[in-house]
Amino acid sequence: MLETSARLLRLLGLLQTPREWSGAELAQRLEIDVRTVRRDIQKLRDLDYPVHATPGAAGYRLGAGAKLPPLLLDDDEAVAVAIGLRTAAGGTVAGIEDTSLRALAKLEQVLPSRLRHRVNLLHSVTVTVPATGPTVDPDVLVAIAAACRDHQRLRFDYRRHDGTSSVRDAEPHRLVHSGRRWYLIGWDTDRSDWRTYRVDRIQPRIPTGPRFTPRQAPDPDFATYLAHGASTASYRYQAKITLYASAEAAAERIAPTVGVIEAIDSDTCMLHTGSNSLDEIAVYVALFGFRFRIHEPPELVSHIRGLAARLTDAVEDS
After folding, report:
1. Cα separation, 286 vs 305, whole angstroms
2. CA distances to 24, 32, 43, 95, 169 from 38, in Å
3. What are the tens digits of pLDDT across the range 47-101?
4. Whether the Cβ atoms of residue 147 and residue 208 lie closer than 8 Å to each other
5. Which tens digits make up the pLDDT trace of 17-60?
6. pLDDT the model gives residue 166
7. DSSP 93
């Protein structure tokens, strides 16, 4: 049987998992009897840890308290947290770099040597490219997340592609993270339609608006919906292009925010993408390295024909 202090730490670790434990389950895990479990639960409560009992059942769970309990991690969890903190130090959320490094230093100080070796090995062979894209204010993320959770309408200033701003009123639904950008999917009350907003262009107006009844999501697959909204729906030109490559091969080169890939068969797929510039679509698709055929829009077909003729003339002249 474990000593009391070690047993309490292990009990606390079990209670930190997001589930309810019966007294019998805890007793089996800790190799003690149910009476000892009840005594240990009371000891944790005496130490100000909020261990709640489920009404009508012999179940226990750890609630939120006034102080942060010791975080008990297994080996894989500790390595995952260390890698995550290292990644966050060079991530897209502004202002958390130093905080992430301080937390990482505390964690690495107490890591057993076998785990520290695994983390250091990964760091020693990894090169991090500094973020050059837009960053997101963590307070903005928290404000939007709270509005999503509490079903409160959100008014915010939104900066468009061309730099102009407008005031939006939306029922926020979900935050979605893709690559190095954050997006908000919400119901735009003025336009009576679902919209996708880049969070780095949002400046919330506090306090938030009244509560609302959540609507049915536009698509249960938020990744697909985001890809469509971010890559096609908001642009002047929306293109449909057949790629002579499998959907899996195309997905390795084409980010979800660039276009939506739809499999046709094992050797071809359809790319749905968009831009405000025909040149941008033409050049971008040509650089994928796949054979392709453009179906829509007609302006893009004509534009690429003219571009191909100019390129051919340039080669013949040389």
Report:
1. 13
2. 10, 11, 9, 44, 51
3. 888 888 876 566 888 887 656 667 777 888 888 888 888 777 666 777 777 788 7
4. yes
5. 777 888 889 999 998 998 999 999 999 888 888 888 876 566 88
6. 92
7. B
Strands 202-205 and 292-296: unpaired
Q: Which amino acid is at 119?
A: V
How far is CA 303 from each of CA 58, 106, 234, rounded to the nearest angstrom? 71, 58, 21
Burial (Cβ within 10 Å: 0-12, 13-18, ≥19) of residue 63: exposed
Say which amino acid occupies 75.
Answer: D
- What are 172's two structure tokens? 């926020």
Residue with tokens 């306090």: 207
- 218 and 233 in contact (C-beta within 8 Å)? no
Q: How far apart are CA 131 and CA 92, in angstroms?
A: 7
Place of tokens 């937390």: 103
Average pLDDT over residues 278-298: 88
Taking every pair of Cα atoms in the chain, the longest distance, rounded to a whole number of angstroms, is 92
Contact predicate 246/263, CB 8 Å: yes
The angle formed by the CA atoms of residues 202, 205 and 206, to the nearest 5 degrees, is: 130
pLDDT digits (tens, 9 = 90+) for 114-127: 888 888 888 777 77
- The reported pLDDT for the residue numbered 313 is 85
More confident: 257 or 200: 200
All residues at 6 or more sequence positions from 188 whose CB lies less than 8 Å from its CB, including other chains: 168, 169, 170, 194, 195
Two structure tokens written together for 283? 């050049």
